[in-house]
Design goal:
The complex is a heterodimer of chains A (110) and B (273). Chain A is of the alpha+beta class. Chain A contains 1 helix and 9 strands, in the order αβββββββββ. Chain A has one domain: Sandwich (Immunoglobulin-like), CATH 2.60.40.420. In chain A, the strands form 2 sheets. A 5-stranded mixed sheet of chain A has the order 3-9-8-5-6, with no helix packed on it. The chains are: A alpha+beta (110), B mainly alpha (273).
Chain lengths: 110, 273
């Protein structure tokens, strides 16, 4: 009874976890001297993908995009990964919420 | 300087409005200062800890630690707010009726106070850790604009507190017999907004993938990173580009808490709602 319940929970959990594990494209972005590099990365349209942001500065940053609907702190020297939903082709603006005046870019989805 | 002011102000009002509402809800309950203050201190300590371990937290659970943490914290706040509403619906009427001579009701009321203290702690924890990280970054960089940014940050903090106080006095100005209905409604919307925000973190972590399309875009009318947008975000869970899943969870949470609060209220004559 108990094992049945546990395996049911595990099955349910794997159902949710599966999409994240699937083979997918990854966009790499680096922050250095409060600049994104590349500042105009490309991503495939109509399929889920991941964005990996590496922070080479000595201050914390917050990678944020309203259109991509993400917001995540990157510790100094740290790296974060975010899952992005399938997107229509277009430009998606992103910025560093802690340094908005110097640090921004556009993701080009095509 | 202005940038620092706005960033800190934005984060502070999110936590501050919630503290203001909790203070208004518990108006006249003896000992509430200790609960709210305790929640505040716990939240600030937690915020400093979260900021210190931001890197480790982000790496935890194969890179989605921060999202899991935020979603968990929000889910806890939603449960606590819902529970407070339900508790108040079943006990609140007597308490409101003799607010001046609460007596025994307060001893029982402390259960609900604990729930609200947790909500305060959780709100301060979430927003506070960002402020700590941001201000720490300024302090660490030690650049020429250091002083300006710090002054801006302090002004942002003061303005955020001032707005929260206004919210508190605005609520307190409502006559006691209406206050209960107003705060119950406020808390229901507050909780629904938090539930929707919880979904955003689960989407960012890749745990929720259904209904991810954008439902509408009102960023041209009321951008949610503007100050009015932020206030609307805290109070009603407003977002300018919500996904279907966000909207669905918002409506479900709103309905569930509303119905549960209604059902918990003692049956009474069909006079005032």
């Amino acid at each position: 009874m108990k094992t049945a319940r546990i395996s049911a929970i595990l099955a349910l959990a794997s159902l949710f976890a599966a999409p994240a594990l699937a083979q997918q494209a990854t966009v790499h972005i680096t922050i250095k001297d409060h600049k994104f590099s590349p500042s105009e990365p490309h991503a495939p349209a109509n399929q889920p993908f991941a964005i990996v942001v590496k922070n080479l500065d000595s201050t914390a940053s917050e990678f944020e995009s309203k259109t991509l609907r993400v917001e995540k702190v990157v510790a100094p020297g740290g790296e974060i990964t975010m899952q992005i939903r399938p997107l229509n082709p277009g430009r998606y603006h992103f910025f560093d919420d802690f340094h908005q005046d110097t640090t921004d870019g556009d993701l080009i989805v095509e | 300087m202005l940038g620092a002011l706005i960033i800190v102000f934005r984060e502070v009002i999110e936590a501050g409005l919630i503290v203001g509402i909790v203070l208004a809800v518990t108006q006249g309950v003896p000992g509430r200062g200790a609960y709210v203050g305790g929640g505040l201190v716990a939240g600030l300590l937690g915020a400093a800890l979260v900021a210190a371990f931001a890197g480790a937290l982000a790496d935890a659970f194969s890179g989605v630690g921060e999202e899991v943490f935020n979603a968990g914290v929000l889910a806890l706040a939603v449960v606590m707010l819902a529970w407070h509403n339900i508790w108040m619906a079943s006990h609140g009427r007597e308490m409101a009726a003799n607010l001046r001579q609460v007596g025994q009701a307060v001893a029982e009321g402390s259960k609900s106070m604990t729930a609200l203290a947790i909500v305060v702690a959780v709100a301060v924890l979430r927003e506070g850790s960002e402020v700590v990280l941001f201000l720490y970054g300024i302090a660490a960089s030690g650049t020429a604009g250091f002083k300006d940014l710090l002054i801006g940050g302090m002004f942002g903090l003061a303005l955020g507190c001032a707005l929260s106080l206004l919210m508190f006095y605005g609520l307190v100005a409502i006559p006691v017999r209406y206050l209960f209905a107003v705060t119950t409604t406020l808390i229901t919307f507050l909780a629904a907004g938090m539930a929707a925000q919880c979904v955003v973190f689960l989407q960012q972590a890749g745990f929720v993938t259904a209904l991810s399309g954008t439902l509408w875009d009102t960023s041209a009318i009321l951008p949610d990173d503007s100050i009015p947008g932020r206030v609307a975000h805290v109070l009603f869970g407003y977002v300018d580009q919500p996904s279907g899943a966000q909207a669905l969870v918002y409506v479900l949470a709103l309905a569930a808490i509303f119905v549960a609060t209604r059902m918990a209220a003692p049956v009474q004559k069909p006079s005032v709602a």
